Amino acid sequence: MSTQETNRGTYNNVAPERVRWEVHYPAFQAGVEACLASVMCSYTGVNGDHSCENNWLLQGDLKDRMDFTGWVMSDWWAVKNMSKGLSAECVRSCQEAIHLGTRLFLTWTISRALARTG
Q1: Is the pTM above the cut of 0.70?
Q2: Which reaction does it catalyse (predicted)?
């Protein structure tokens, strides 16, 4: 739902449901109908939540309402809290993103550190 590249890490796109379904979602719906295997969530926020950590966007609209059965991949560092280091909050953030349907591709170093922290 990103409409611009500038400030993409801090930008929050406010889009009411009608605008999402009439403007932003038709291309995604066409992809789902064509058996698209994956989508990528972005850096930007959508209605106050980062797109890679947005339950109603990923689970509600994409998977439940559009019947998307593929996987969601995070854009490079788009899952917030990753840049804060491998703290307990980071581990929780990764677990939550995975629970919400985001497939995380992590570097070997981060993957090992996450495995050590539980």
Answers
A1: no
A2: Hydrolysis of terminal, non-reducing beta-D-glucosyl residues with release of beta-D-glucose
User: By three-state DSSP, how is residue 35 classified?
Assistant: coil
| 3-state DSSP assignment of residue 103 | strand
User: What end-to-end distance do the CA atoms of the chain give, in Å?
Assistant: 33
Q: Mind telling me the catalytic residues? A: 75
Segment 63-103, tens digit of pLDDT = 999 999 988 887 777 776 444 334 566 667 777 777 777 76
**What amino acid is encoded at 86 in this protein?**
L
Handedness of CA 45, 18, 64, 24 (dihedral sign): negative
Joined together, the tokens standing for residue 90 give: 């980071």
Three-state SS at 23: helix
